[in-house]
Amino acid sequence: MHPILSRPSRFAAYVAIWVLLGAALASLLALQHVFAWPAAAAFALPLAVAFGFVCLSAYYGSHVSTQDDLPRAVVTAVAAAFISSGVWLLLARGWLAVLGSIGRAPGGAASFRQAAPTLFWFGFLLYLLAFAVSFLSRTFEAARQAERRGLELQVLAREAELRALRSQLDPHFLFNSLQSISALTAADPSGARRMCLLLADFLRDTLTLGAMPRIPLRRELLLAQRYLEVEQVRFGGRLRVEIDAGRAGDCLVPPLILQPLVENAVTHGIAHVLDGGVVRIRAAAGARRLVVSVENPVDRDGPRGKGTGVGLSNVRERLRAAYGPMEARLDASATDGAFRAQLELPIEAAADAGTPQ
Fold it and tell me: What is the pLDDT of residues 217-236, one digit of tens each?
């Protein structure tokens, strides 16, 4: 169905426009002394509304042409305008005969010959205008659809990228955890068993929360705490934990976004400091930004831990995929025997954020 005919409001507005154009045509004919003012109005107003329905065909004619073939569109428009103006002249002649038979528009054939050039070119230009409007509206609609498809593809690509990055994070964590359990099986079997149970609890939570696009920060911190409880079985008193979220617990973050940072704090920090140390996790929410930091001691003279090298890079890629290249960032620096990783994210508040049991 034609878009103008699909809604009564559009149809009423369209008819009103053609009534106004009919009034303009009546004025033109009266000023040319073809008809008196009353006869000009009786002749031009119904005729203009009828031509408005003829011009609806411009919508379908514009669909035959494409923006890439502009000469064809111009030829189609001119040819359709000539044909439509010719049809309008036939309608005008018939309508004039009807008005003459009831005495409303005297003059007959002489008046029609005098009015014909004005009618033809008036109709020709109006049809070209209708064709141009239809062609441009179709072009804009095609551009919007292409943009919409592009955005949909971008969202799908981003979701696929996030899924791929998450699939890298989980094996990375399991690799480190299984290494720890393997080391405990000989030296502390009960500790290895306890570590397995804690790991099972952690994995159960990650399966539940990892599929969500965002989770409250307090739930992310609880996941980090459970991971650190797993590692405390191995490190004992050498690993201490301080977590302070303040009032930022309801802010939303991507799930497992802190996991690689906490892993690095243990694997490349606590593991190489003889006396161990404190892993500090701090969060602060400003007016627009959420800042979360993970800090741990480091031994600048000690050996570096072996890793797969995907931790920090995965966090940066997840931030880029989730927020765009400029909205979020990860900064990492080592100063005065401490390593600090800091996340800055846009504030996203959760009104009814809960805590997993």
Answer: 999 999 899 889 888 887 88
Q: What are phi and psi of 281, to 5 degrees?
A: -120, 120
Domain extents in the chain: 3-150, 188-346
* pLDDT tens-digit readout, 70-104: 787 788 888 989 999 999 899 998 888 888 888 77
Residue 58, phi then psi, degrees to nearest 5: -60, -30
Q: Return the structure tokens found at 301.
A: 């003279």
Q: What is the pTM of this model?
A: 0.53
- In the Cβ-directed half-sphere of 41, how many Cα atoms lie within 13 Å? 3
Q: Which amino acid is at 119?
A: L
Structure tokens at 222: 């609880």
Of 262, 266, 250, which Cα lies nearest the Cα of 215? 250
Which neighbouring-strand residues pair with 215?
A: 253
Q: Which CATH superfamily is domain 188-346 in?
A: Histidine kinase-like ATPase, C-terminal domain (3.30.565.10)
Parallel, antiparallel, or unpaired: how do β-strands 289-297 and 277-285 relate? antiparallel
Helix (H) or strand (E) holding 202: helix 189-209
Q: Is 246 left (phi over 0), alpha (psi -120 to 50) or beta?
A: left
CA atoms 31, 35, 41, 46: torsion sign: negative
Residues 217, 251: Cα–Cα separation, whole Å: 6
For residue 352, what pLDDT is reported?
A: 40
